[in-house]
Write a structure and sequence with these properties.
The complex is a heterodimer of chains A (257) and B (245). Chain A has one domain. In chain A, helix 3 crosses helix 4, helix 8 packs parallel to helix 12 and helix 11 crosses helix 12. Chain A is mainly α and 257 residues long. Chain A has twelve helices and no strands. Chain A is globular, with a radius of gyration of 19 Å. Chain B has 245 residues and is an alpha/beta fold. The termini of chain B are far apart. Chain B has a domain of 70 residues. In chain B, helix 3 packs across helix 5. The chains are: A mainly alpha (257), B alpha/beta (245).
Chain lengths: 257, 245
Amino acid sequence: MKILSEIYGYRELLFELVKRDLKIKYRRSSLGVIWSVLNPLLFMMITTIIFSTMFKNQIENFPIYFLSGQVMYAFFAESTGMAQTGLIDNGSLIKKVYTPKYIFPLSKICFSLVNMSFSLIAILIIIFIMGYNLPVTAALFFIPIILIFIFSAGVGLLLSSLTVIYRDILHIYGIFLSLLSFFSATFYPIQIIPASYRGLVEYNPVYVFIAYFRELVLNGRLPDLQLNIVAVMYCLVSVVVGYKVFKKNENKIVLYV
Amino acid sequence: MSNVAIKLEDVTMVFDLNKENISGFKEYIIKKIKRQIVTEKFHALKQVSLTIPKGEVVGILGFNGAGKSTLLKTIAGVLMPTSGRVESHGKIAPLIELGAGFDMELTARENIYLNGAILGYSRKFIEAKFDEIVDFAEIHEFLDVPLKNYSSGMVARIGFSIATVVKPDILIVDEILSVGDYKFQQKCEERIKAMISGETTVIMVSHSIEQIRGMCRKAFLLDRGTLIASGDVEEVCNQYMNLSN
């Protein structure tokens, strides 16, 4: 709990770091922040058109099915990927001024959250164009997002501290992420996976959060108890392990960045 | 509380030199099998103990590689000593490198807010002090120019200006007064002197003996990680000169 109040104390720094990343991302582009919505919108349109013909008959409302999976996976991949280099990128700063080091990976996770919210706007636009009626439960969409945010924060802490020391992880994780995208059932129905392998997808944390999101937005149901427990457990394990590993390596980080 | 600003007890800082060469599992495993991992230890600081009372202005002397910067970094809390204890009372303003944490893509205005946040000032505070910071750094016309187009001297000015906008309890100055033109150097010295009279503890590293003599009352002399002299600034400076010969 102490750590939470400490993070709260550094909220202004966190805010400034996120703002920095956003500013740099859109500097010198004439459309600026509009790209944040336009980019996912165009990407989603293209991929939706391509995949729609593949699984049209098996999945109802395929674009929503695909986009809800895609936006959750993309958040996890982007946030943890950026958090991973968060310490290395701020190396010169870490060596010269004392700041709690977890702020840097954490700021990347927050930055991705902002990006994700732009993607959600894009999805809303698509939903509007398609004339799809959102169920009432869709109003709870923020719960799986909070869950995957916590989960990613834990993974980000773990990765960032280990990557500083073992740079190989940087390359391994890139491959791991593309593998993960195929095991997250973003663009295919989970039923096409043979039953004996289905567990690989079903217990994939990212898929759990995607399933949670789809239950609310697509199926109009509240996720059952089991899904809730699994999702919360993943968050807890991720944050506790990530935090412990980070703390253990914290004092070594400055020697390697 | 006592009137001690900084207290170091038996501070030892050891770096593993081999760490620099191995940056991956594969390399590590291969070298481990080949038994090529020779842990060469480098003692940057060897059992350094010192006490700096509040309001004192001290200089740290020593050749390149004597451990001066390492000492300042342990005091600033950037480095954790391998063994020993570091105690400091009060808010520290570390001027270890001016403009650490500046983002060259951002403008001066944006960097002032970012750097302020890094140093732990609130946005409100920076807003209130904004004009003062800009006035001191003399960068009015260039406020909205990305920092990458600035000269290094101008970047240093902003860094100094932000870091010293509050009166810290402890000011750590590492070889930074050599940047900037003559006029600005004087301005910085004046500001530091104003802080000194306002009870700020100052620890400075400089290769300019003149500067140390002019500003400090006490000095410490480091030689290859060991504290070999401390006391009155004249005596220590003389010892440093003799060491050179």
